[in-house]
Structures are given as structure tokens and as C-alpha cells.
Design goal:
The protein has 2 domains: about 130 residues, Alpha-Beta Complex (Aspartate Aminotransferase, domain 1), CATH 3.90.1150; about 230 residues, Aspartate Aminotransferase, domain 2 (3-Layer(aba) Sandwich). The mean pLDDT is about 95. The chain contains 15 helices and 13 strands. The chain has about 375 residues and is an alpha/beta fold. The structure holds pyridoxal-5'-phosphate. The site of pyridoxal-5'-phosphate has 14 residues, from α5.
């Protein structure tokens, strides 16, 4: 049975395999005995390996131990957890914040407590799997609207029966396309139709907005979007997730969100590292500057080579290939030229939209980006993507 399923996946070029690194993450990594340039990491600001962030994790481990010993509501709320929740609320300018073990857990924990059976969810079609799973768990009716299409969303809102509780779900910065949600229009629709807007800003946190508070800050909507979730595992370089918002929302979730209640608290080191990462990110805005100038260099180069890309406006730079098999072959050719960038295939993206999702960070040098462009040109010729 298992072997059959695996063979079916392989036949469709959809088999996934782990590809272990021989080093930590960084602009370059060790892979299969060679040094290669990594263009697949979400550690956009290099905070995963920042000495101060590492030191905070070591200190917290020495002071509080490796594990938290219990779930948050039992005896697992240690000083680093409380400190991080305070830092997050201060950073985001909200009353309160609460941590989750990961973004996946946050979404499946929060959504079913915002909406339920008989209610309606309208979600952008490209929403992350964790959002979709949260929607399924809620048992609400679930419809998708075309990607970033507010006219389509409005037509769905108009057609629903009167007074039906409705949750609109979107990512802030879309993880697989690198484009932004039309948050301003989404907020207006939510207000006009008395729906609740739920924004997952996993990728926007730390890189979008003048001070890195995320996509909502970037769009100037902090006063109109009372709560939202984000993660600590991408630009903040660590692990975990949060929701920030009014105190009553946070206290409610602490009482009802099962993936918050029934799991061991994050390790103290992880919480302490995230607090320090937030401090460093705010104190060193030059990281964001470097990120955006690297993004420009790589994006312009890719366009000049003639690749077909998404409507990206961010350091997520997907090259569209289409076919899952062709995407895998392109990734293999790139690796042969010492570029590590993974093929993203269904079900992560829709059938026929397989791609290589490149991400650039503040830590890549101009030389590394130029080397990557050289490799892209060669691999593009070899696979027939470029003529
Ligand atoms: C990565 C991601 C998540 C999951 O976060 P983890 O902390 O990795 O579990 C959720 N939503 C979006 C949009 C993401 O990109």
C-alpha cells in the first residue's frame, strides 16, 4: 500500500525527499560535500546565526534549562515566555500577545475559535495549508476567492445570507508568490459587510513596513486590523508563532485554543532568542536595507535573463516552470552549478504552477548574487527554459 502510493507520487514527479544539509543555515551551506549558495531560506535577515541571538539562547538554557517542563497553563510559563509576549505586544503596539509552538499550530488553534459550524469562511485561494487546515477544523462553510481579487470576494459577500458570521482569511505577504494582499480593500470589505479579517503575516513579519512590524504596518492599517498572527521562524530566525491583539482576544484564546493548551511550552532558549531577535531587528535597520537591495539585484538579473516570474514585490522570487518534472530537473541543474533552491510542486502550489522559489537574504554578498545569476543562466539554457 505504502509502496504503491510512493510509486504513484514518483510517477507524477511529486515524490518528496529530505535533502539534509551538512551545515547550519546561511548564505552558503555545505551540501553533498560541497559549499553551495543557499537561496531557499526564510531567514531573511540572518538572525538565525546572529551572535547576540545565539548568546541569548545559550544564556536562557543555562539559566532555565533545555525544556520548559510543562504546558503553558500548568507550570511551563517561564520568564522568557512572559518577556517575549510583552516584547511582541510592545513591538506591535497591541494590548497583548500570546505564543504558539509554531505557525501551523497557531492557525489550526485560532481559526476554529473565531468561527464555527453554520458560519462562513472566505479565504484567498493561495492561503497556506495551515490556514486551510484551520478552516477545515472549524467546520464552517469554506469558500475561496480568486487570488487578491476583492471584486470576487465582494460578490461572495453579497450572495451570503443575511447576518451570517463571516471570517475573511488572507496571508499578508504570500509565501509562494511573494506578492501582497490588497489589505486596504480587504479591511474596507470586512468593515462594510461586518466580517472579521484574519491576516497571517508569517513572511511579512520583520521585513515589511518602515520598522519591520509587517505587512499591516506597510499598508498603514494598524488602527483598523485589531489582531493578526505571525511567526518567529522566518525573518526572526527562530521558531514559534504569535497572535497579537486586544487583551480579551488573547485571554479568550489562552482559554480555548487546544494547540496552545495541550502542548509543552516552547523551550526557554527559543523564547529568549526571539526577544533578542526583535531587539536586533529594530536596532539594525541596515539589515532590511541590505535585504531590499539584494532583492533588487537578484530580481532585476532574473528579469533580464528572461525568466517568467510571479507578480512578486518581495525577497520571495519564484521562477515559474509549470510542470512538476521540469521544475525538479531545473532545481537539479541549479544544484550542479552550486545553487541550492528547491522546486515547489503540488500540492503546495496548484497543478501546472510548479516553480523554483528563490529567497534572498540580507547576508548574501553581491558576488554571491551574481554567481547565482550566472548559474541561473546556465541552468536555464540547459533545461530549455531560456533560449
Ligand atoms: C511558514 C508559514 C506558516 C507556518 O509557520 P511555522 O511556524 O513554520 O509552522 C503559516 N503560515 C504561513 C503563511 C507560512 O508561510
Amino acid at each position: 500500500m505504502f509502496r504503491n502510493r510512493l510509486r504513484q507520487l514518483a510517477d507524477r514527479s511529486l515524490l518528496r525527499r529530505l535533502s539534509p544539509l551538512e551545515s547550519g543555515t546561511g548564505p552558503t551551506i555545505q551540501h553533498a560535500g560541497r559549499e553551495v549558495i543557499l537561496l531557499s531560506s526564510n531567514d531573511y535577515l540572518g538572525l538565525a546565526t546572529h551572535p547576540e541571538v545565539i548568546r541569548a539562547a545559550i544564556q536562557a538554557t543555562e539559566q532555565y534549562g533545555v525544556g520548559s517542563g510543562a504546558s503553558r497553563l500548568v507550570s511551563g510559563t517561564l520568564p522568557p515566555h512572559a518577556d517575549l509576549e510583552t516584547s511582541l505586544a510592545t513591538f506591535k503596539g497591541t494590548e497583548a500577545a500570546v505564543l504558539f509552538g509554531a505557525g501551523y499550530l497557531a492557525n489550526i488553534g485560532i481559526i476554529p475559535n473565531l468561527i464555527g459550524q453554520g458560519d462562513l469562511i472566505l479565504a484567498d485561494r493561495l492561503c497556506h495549508a495551515s490556514l486551510i487546515d484551520g478552516c477545515r477544523l472549524s467546520r464552517a462553510d469554506f469558500r475561496v476567492f480568486h487570488h487578491r481579487d476583492c471584486a470576487h470576494l465582494e460578490s461572495l459577500l453579497r450572495r451570503r445570507s443575511a447576518n451570517r458570521s463571516t471570517l475573511i482569511i488572507t496571508e499578508g505577504l504570500f509565501s509562494m508568490d511573494g506578492d501582497l494582499a490588497p489589505l486596504s480593500d480587504l479591511v474596507s470589505l470586512a468593515e462594510r459587510y461586518e466580517a472579521t479579517l484574519y491576516v497571517d503575516d508569517a513572511h511579512g513579519t520583520g521585513i515589511m513596513g518602515p520598522t519591520g512590524r509587517g505587512t499591516i504596518e506597510h499598508c498603514g492599517l494598524e488602527q483598523r486590523i485589531p489582531f493578526h498572527m505571525g511567526t518567529l521562524g522566518k525573518a526572526l530566525g527562530g521558531h514559534g508563532a504569535y497572535i497579537v491583539g486586544p487583551n480579551d482576544v488573547i485571554q479568550y484564546l489562552i482559554n480555548v485554543a487546544r494547540p496552545f493548551i495541550f502542548t509543552t511550552a516552547l523551550p526557554p532558549a527559543v523564547a529568549a532568542a526571539a526577544s533578542t531577535a526583535i531587539t536586533v531587528m529594530q536596532r539594525e535597520p541596515e539589515r532590511r536595507m541590505r535585504l531590499w537591495s539584494n532583492r533588487e539585484r537578484l530580481f532585476t538579473g532574473m528579469q533580464q535573463l528572461g525568466f517568467r516570474m510571479t507578480q512578486t514585490v518581495s525577497p520571495i522570487l519564484p521562477i515559474l516552470v509549470g510542470d512538476a518534472d521540469a521544475a525538479s530537473v531545473f532545481a537539479e541543474r541549479l544544484l550542479a552549478h552550486r545553487i541550492y533552491a528547491t522546486a515547489i510542486r503540488p500540492p503546495t502550489v496548484r497543478e501546472g504552477t510548479s516553480r523554483i522559489r528563490f529567497t534572498v537574504t540580507s547576508e548574501h554578498s553581491a558576488d554571491q548574487i551574481d554567481e547565482a545569476l550566472h548559474a541561473l543562466n546556465l541552468a536555464g539554457q540547459e533545461t530549455g527554459l531560456l533560449f
